[in-house]
Amino acid sequence: MADGLEIVHPGLYTTVQDLGRFGFQDLGVPPSGALDTVGLRQANALVGNRPGEACLEISYVGPVIRVAAESVRIAVSGEVRLAVADGGPPRPLASNRSHRLGRGDTLTVGAVSGASTAYLAVEGGFDLPPVLGSLSSYGRAGLGPLGGRPPVAGTILPLRLGQCRDSDEMTFAKPMDYGAGPVRVVLGPQREAFTEDAVATLLGSQYRVSKEADRMGLRLDGPKLRHRVSADIASDGLVSGCIQVPGNGLPIILLADHQTVGGYAKIATVISADLPRLGRAVPGTVLAFAAVTVAEAESLRRAQENGIQRLIREIVPVPATGIDLDALYGADLISGMVDAVSGLGR
Amino acid sequence: MDNFRITDLGDTAFAVEFGDGVDPAANARVTALRHGVLLARRQGGLAGLVETIPTFRSLLVQYDPLLTGRAVLEAEIRAIAAQSAAAPAGGGRTWVIPACYDEDLGEDLAELGRAAGLSRDEAIALHTGAEFTVYMLGFMPGFAYMGGVPEALRRPRRASPRLKVPPGSVALADALCAVYPWESPGGWHLIGQTPVSFFDLGREPPILLAAGDRVRFRAMDRAEFEAARRDSTLVAPERLLLAEDP
């Protein structure tokens, strides 16, 4: 049998994702890919992978995985409760650093805190066949590895490396700052389909991420946005971040699994630098919006990219001895995953 | 004066719009611009372009803002649009798609016909007699929006969408015809089913139709439909090589 990670329990909604499937949107194929591309890049960096290597995207609560290989190096980016057992009682592990696991070890990826998504990378990546050039999963049309669907108990995710390299474990010198404050948008493309009042309402109110939040988009609750005549337009192209407003006046922010064309008027588009933040947003998150120009959006994106590259450059070895304080701090919270499952249906 | 406008979609895309509605003339210009863009791309131009999405009336241009900038790419696309404006709508292939129009496969056909004062056979004859043009793909992988529905068969979409439309369903809404490649919810009127797969990863390319293609439907009886469903090698859509030119 090939070296791999065996899924013992799949978690709430775990999928294989990379940076997206581009080049087929003219055929109706959504881009998909990681909701939080920064998180994916961070996990990969910790195990020495190239930035866009496919990871497991974890939604709210992660999987239980058994190592069916000589050894494997893993890293989970995000604040996630982790525990490993090798026959004895589980030991806590810290997220945001790499760990070497041995054959038969069972890794429990518990609840993600403060965000909806986290990423698990394995050194060398998964040995899965790309579909239309990408390892991103798109369940609706069965595109991606594993037929585009989440792994189930018993699934073996084959590894490219049957054994991890002999190297230091790595962590970040500083944690990633996703930023706070208003979500920046560029108004349009159908700004004129809305009343002036609607634009002022979007930019002057608070919206709350509703329970209807998934890989396709975030439906928001808050003041209604009025159309001048109608919510319907002759369908045109979409990108992640587009804020569609159907006839009920409540905005929907499109995320990675969005359809490629749509017939609802779009009042604004979230800038690319703020998309990773929205890809992590949990129901109940309060959002405010601020308008910027395209040129401002471009320079915000460049500044963010410089920050991410600095963060990744400044990855440092974990001290070889000493107590893993982060893990100890999180240890008593591992049992919390049960509450998280019942409280967050999706 | 350019008779198009450019609209903003954040810092990763803009749209070049040639019209507001479902419009064959605007669609021909979209197709011409897209061909110009693909040609420039093949010649090594348009650095940072990710891809384009053609629609009825607009071309979405998606880019990587770390590799190019809006000002640079927009100028390049404007130059291509100016040159491609006069070009005829390009190439396109003509396909003949077999479909079975039996009552249980096309539940709304009788009602569409009644509304137009047509018998069932007359409604089928109208649909199989029409030539459709693929305006765009979207909504789901392989879903082709085809214009050219005869006036008598045009009805607005159903007030309450069906929760499950079977894959292969041939459907009409207003002036548009489409085939659902996947089971999905849908509000269009169902008139029949085809055994032809519009999206198949085992095929190269996986998508049957492209924007600019033309499509005619051919009625097949139930026995032929069932046989084709059992044996997918029987359902190769016929491509009319004679009809390459517009």
TrEMBL record, chain A:
It comes from the Bacteria. Pfam families: CT_A_B. Keywords: ATP-binding, Hydrolase, Nucleotide-binding. One of its GO terms (molecular function) is ATP binding. SUPFAM superfamilies: Cyclophilin-like. The keyword Transferase does not apply. InterPro entries: CT_A_B (IPR003778), Cyclophilin-like_dom_sf (IPR029000), PxpC (IPR052708). Residues 26-307 form the Carboxyltransferase domain. This is Allophanate hydrolase subunit 2. The keyword ATP-binding applies.
